[in-house]
Design a protein that fits this description.
The protein is of the alpha/beta class and 209 residues long. It folds into two domains: 7-141, Rossmann fold; 149-203, Orthogonal Bundle (Arc Repressor Mutant, subunit A). 54% of the residues lie in helices and 13% in strands. The chain contains ten helices and five strands; from the N terminus they run βαβαβαβαβαααααα. Strands 2-1-3-4-5 form a five-stranded parallel sheet, with helices on both faces. It is elongated and about 65 Å long. It comes from Herminiimonas glaciei. It holds the Pfam family Response_reg. This is Response regulator. The modification 4-aspartylphosphate is found at residue 59.
Length: 209
């Protein structure tokens, strides 16, 4: 509870089983109440307008508007909204995007049963909530250079199996320029080769397959 007040929670997730699981956990707590559910980002915004809950949990991957877009839209109308992202991914770039969009928390679905209630109470009290593994990744990567938009573009094409020559043709650049971008990508990610760079890029959330 916030003082003597029950914490009102809104959950947005397009997976019915996940919604059921979260509803069951929240329903078992005396100091919490699930006041609404949404199946996509647009519905999350609409539900927030109607309910104005104390804490909102939003899935990262949803139809119509993803979690980060939903956070951005809600915070644009309600600057003091308390929102946490729900996700199966621990990539630090996604966490940074969520934070920049205005999320105060980031919860991994794999740890929900254990952490959910604690996280909701922390968020309702006005504090941020990030699991240790997310905090550690953010600390590890925050000081490192991020990939430039062009480097992300090159890495995406590498992930799709294009050769340096093919990427050069597609981006209307010289092959030497592509090789330079690849060296920079590998240096920034600490990768041993192009396959390793793709693997790290996916893990850290720079690209998705």
């Amino acid at each position: 509870m916030i003082g003597d007040k029950v914490i009102r929670v809104l959950v947005a997730d397009d997976h019915p089983l996940m919604l059921e699981g979260i509803a069951a956990v929240i329903g078992s707590q005396e100091d919490m109440q699930l006041v609404g559910e949404a199946a996509d980002g647009i519905e999350a915004l609409s539900s927030y307008r109607t309910l104005q809950p104390d804490v909102t949990l939003i899935d990262l991957q949803m139809p119509k508007a993803n979690g980060i877009d939903a956070v951005r839209m809600i915070r644009a109308e309600f600057p003091f909204a308390c929102i946490a992202i729900l996700t199966t991914y621990s990539g630090d770039v996604r966490a940074l995007h969520a934070i920049k969009a205005g999320a105060q928390g980031y919860l991994l679905k794999s740890a929900l049963r254990k952490e959910l209630c604690d996280a909701i109470r922390v968020l309702a009290s006005g504090q941020r909530y990030f699991p240790p593994e997310i905090s550690n990744e953010l600390m590890a990567y925050l000081g490192q250079d991020c990939l430039s938009p062009r480097e992300i573009q090159v890495l995406k094409l590498i992930a799709q199996g294009f050769s340096n020559r093919q990427i050069a043709v597609q981006l209307v650049l010289t092959e030497d320029t592509i090789k330079g971008h690849l060296r920079s990508i590998m240096d920034k990610l600490g990768a041993n080769n192009r396959t390793h760079a793709v693997t790290i890029g996916i893990e850290r959330g720079f690209i998705e397959l």
